[in-house]
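Predict structure. Chain length: 196.
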Amino acid sequence: MTSAAPQPPVLNADNLREMQTARVSLRKIRRAVLSAKIEGYSVAICGALTVAMGMGSIWQMLGGTVLAVIGVIEIVGGTRLGKLDIDAVRILTINQLSLAVLILMYALWMLHSEMVHPADLADLGAAGGADLGQMGSSIQGLTHEIMLLMYGSMILAAAVEAGMAAYYHSRGAHLRRYLSETPAWIIAMQKAGMTI
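Prediction complete.
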């Protein structure tokens, strides 16, 4: 004989008001969860593509793997934050700082390499005459400027990631306040995976 499924609790008007208040209070946390999941999937996909396109280059494959791991950690951290796990704030903050440092180190290394050894297209002149050599020199200058601009933008991207780390860190205060002000029965529901 099977037992009947448990009946959901009957909510009175006070319970419904508490749920509405909790729903409003949770907006900033929900935004952080959504941000973590979007960025996590984006970074993980970029990492997987980097590994796939870097087959044969140990450094590209290693970099892509690190990116993919950072993306997965972001997704897991976002999921845990959605279940009101206060440790998720620390995980997301450290993960974002790691990503910022990784991007910054890569950009600085590539910027240094470009400054010391710019792409050399001058060999075109030796192979194809003076006109081709002059064109190669112009292309080299343009390529050098584009590379400097690209790596400079990556430094700005690292600053944005550091800003995201600060954003996740600030969600800790919101989550602690939410956990202290919200009725225990609502928190228990959310930790069990139910949305309000």
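Summary: The two ends are 33 Å apart (CA to CA).
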